[in-house]
Amino acid sequence: MSTLLWLALPYIALTSFLVGHLWRYRHDQFGWTTRSSQMHESRLLRLGSPLFHFGLLAVIGGHVLGLLVPKSWTEFVGITEGMYHLVSVTAGTLAGTATVAGVAILLYRRFTVSAVRKATTRGDKVMYAFLAAAIVTGMFNTVGENLIGGGYDYRSSVSVWFRGLFTFSAQPELMTGTPLSFQVHNVTVLVLLGIWPYTRLVHVFSAPLGYLVRPYVVYRSRDPQRPDANRYARAWGDQHE
Amino acid sequence: MRVMAQLAMVMNLDKCIGCHTCSVTCKQAWTNRGGVEYAWFNNVETRPGQGYPRQYQDQEKWKGGWELNKRGKLTLRTGSRLKRLLNIFANPDMPTVADYYEPWTYDYQNLLSAPPSDTTPTAKPKSSITGEDTKVTWGANWDDDLGGGPAQIGKDPLLGKLSEQVKLEFEQTFMFYLPRICEHCLNPSCAASCPSGAIYKRAEDGIVLVDQDKCRGWRQCVTGCPYKKIYFNHKTGKAEKCTFCYPRVEVGIPTVCSETCVGRLRYIGVLLYDADKVAEAASVKDDKDLYPAQLDVFLNPHDPRVVAEAERAGISGEWIEAAQNSPVYRLIVDYQLALPLHPEYRTMPMVWYVPPLSPVVDVLSETGHDGESVGNLFGAIDALRIPVEYLAELFTAGDVGPVRASLQRLAAMRAHMRKVNLGEELDDSIAESVRLAPGEIESMYRLLAIAKYEDRYVIPGGAGSEAHKLEALTTGCSLDGDGGPGMTAFDVMAEKFQLTDTNGAAPTDKTKRINLLDWDGVRTDGLFPGNGSSGNGATGNGAAGTAHEPEAIA
Ligand code: HEM
Ligand code: SF4
Ligand code: SF4
């Protein structure tokens, strides 16, 4: 069982994540979109979406620190477990609260505003189920275990297991002793990652940072025989801000 | 000098009867699909009126177009690039469907299936978006012909800019129709606000298009365009816009709206312009200088230096010749009759308008005056401040000078041509008073009034001469088509010019791409290698799939 959950599932999920994205990017450019629903409803979205997204981006940042940066590194630069715990719990609680509030507003909107409900696909529903479960269990881990409970040093177990996946030396047994809420959280996130490329979540990978540096107006030639070397080759923009 | 070519349009507003034929044919061709029920790439609005979407001209609210920042540089009115990205999760300046109108249909089925009863069954209105019962309270042309009365018309953002007194007098004064499509701007703020760089201007003809594969649905362009001519398809999650019917103009025939215009008031032609001067012209300080600045960007296609530069820039002889014969160039530059729509948005729009003289003529005739006497007309143009000031808000950022000059030329043409037609002795001073030679007035008259097909549309690119045959086909006998009996002119057209992937117009590397014109968000044929042979001609009628729920991937 533990091999299945903590060795097979992660590899299946991560492979699906990787291969799925490649496949979708190559074959479904037209379907690659946020499928914004702001045309239908703006007021609740303006409340919920920034809360959710900014919160979640902070949460993801926190995960990168917590999971990928080994404990020995932070200790090396003089950060004690106590300090780390304090920072991660406060920042995590703040970001987590924003995310939970945001996702609650978004879900409320999705299911009460009839135009938005009509625009919700089966894929959206499955995605939202796992996304909400991942957020709620994650929040429980931060608040329930680490803030109110005694605090659980996941960096000695979960993080080590997770990094092991990438060096192909994963130790599934590290996960068996962890609190149940951590196990549930990990499973939901892994499933979410597995279905990610087949949902609207692909929009995350086209976050348009290039906008900050490209010229304002893009020119393209109609003639396919003469493709521009650079995507924005014929653009001008010097006079623009 | 960097010469570029642009396909531009001029509409002669005097001739628009507000019949909406252009809107309807455009809709049938392009937006007869789910997700864009509310979208009219071509719409006709009554002015004064709120327009479509409601009050779109109020840029304090919608933040479309460009403005100059403190350092005098062009920036998007919605804010810097960074600000746009920080607002990407929810766009604060975005209209919702309600600002356009909630599209609806009727429950026709009930008329057939209702059980026998004492009362006639009714077809209740149903929202096309939710399918639920709806109340019809607004539409794309709700205030047509000043419908809705002063309460609605008073919400016209342009009226707010005129003085109180003008507003009071206004209702008795005048009314006209304004057909609108995308302006295919030289400095398109839609493209500039697209975070993915999916909106581009075609280097060859200046048509502004959305790459449906690159668009990621950030919906910033909807805000960016001050004319609100980008429509977000709420089913596919991609932005769509007027395409200037590029599959048609590429083979030398005019856009659907032009082709079908009952008033024959649209002109299409090539303009050459200096791309290096665009940004500078769009950045002049005073809004009122934007119209002359844009005129200055256009190049004289008869000037040998311009021709040489154009050739050097790779513009073909056919295009240069088209630029020399361009009706649009004559109306915009030679006669300076046509004016840009809202130059103060600083996007350098390329669909221009000959302002309507008819409100002035109408007032004269209603008050028993001779509406064709040049003295009366000139007097009326000056006395009827309201139409002129209103038109100036529309076309010249409030500067009445160019509007008055244009109307005076139209008035002079009217007076001069009456003398010609009645065989009266000609009075050359009429032409001189508007700085034209009598011969020029007559050729202007031919262009505006007689306006034969080949004079209105001078479109280079392959089949310019065939275009005329096609028009004959659409009005002629359908059996004349080269497929023989049953081959309608439309079939010929469809086969040749539809955006299907089996014709030669499809890019070579994309022959198996699905036809985005009618993609319903469900079918996946053509998305995968190996089964991509369908999704073309057979299904390419643009009407398929409107009722489908999007439920495939994502
Ligand atoms: C930095 C990158 C991201 C950007 C730029 C971005 C942008 C957007 C935009 C523009 C929308 C459409 C909102 C609307 O108008 O309806 C959206 C929706 C959404 N995004 Fe993101 N997003 C990002 C990251 C993420 C991440 C990391 C997740 C979660 C794992 C996420 C989950 C969602 C969900 C669930 C929705 C649908 C909201 C709803 O309408 O119910 N996004 N995002
Ligand atoms: S009018 Fe057309 S080209 Fe100009 S900004 Fe709007 S959508 Fe873009
Ligand atoms: S078809 Fe021509 S006359 Fe009719 S509304 Fe359109 S532009 Fe005006």
Largest sheet of chain B: 4 strands, mixed
- Backbone shape of chain B: globular
Q: Assembly type of the shown chains?
A: heterodimer
**Cα distance, first to last residue of chain A?**
59 Å
Rounded to an integer, what's the Rg of chain A over CA atoms? 21 Å
C-alpha Rg of chain B, in Å?
24 Å
| Order of neighbouring strands in the sheet with most strands of chain B | 12-1-14-13
Number of strands of chain B: 14
Helix count, DSSP H or I runs of 4 or more residues of chain A:
9
* Head-to-tail CA distance between termini of chain B: 48 Å
Assign a percent range to the helix content of chain A: 55-70%
Strand content of chain B: 5-15%
Parts with pLDDT < 50 across at least 5 consecutive residues of chain B: 462-513, 531-554
Mean pLDDT of chain A, rounded to whole units?
Answer: 89
Notes on the protein architecture:
The complex is a heterodimer of chains A (241) and B (554). By secondary structure, chain A is mainly α. Helices cover 63% and strands 1% of the residues of chain A. Chain A contains nine helices and one strand. In chain A, helix 1 packs parallel to helix 9, helix 4 packs antiparallel against helix 6 and helix 6 runs antiparallel to helix 9. The longest helix of chain A is centred in the middle third of the chain and has 32 residues. Chain A is globular. The termini of chain A are far apart. Chain B is of the alpha+beta class. In chain B, 35% of the residues lie in helices and 11% in strands. Chain B is built from 25 helices and 14 strands. In chain B, the strands form six sheets. Chain B has a four-stranded mixed β-sheet with strand order 12-1-14-13. Chain B has a two-stranded antiparallel sheet with strand order 2-7. In chain B, helix 17 packs across helix 18, helix 19 crosses helix 20 and helix 20 crosses helix 22. The longest helix of chain B is centred in the C-terminal third of the chain and has 23 residues. The interface between A and B is large, with 64 and 74 residues. Bound molecules: protoporphyrin IX containing FE and iron/sulfur cluster (2 copies).
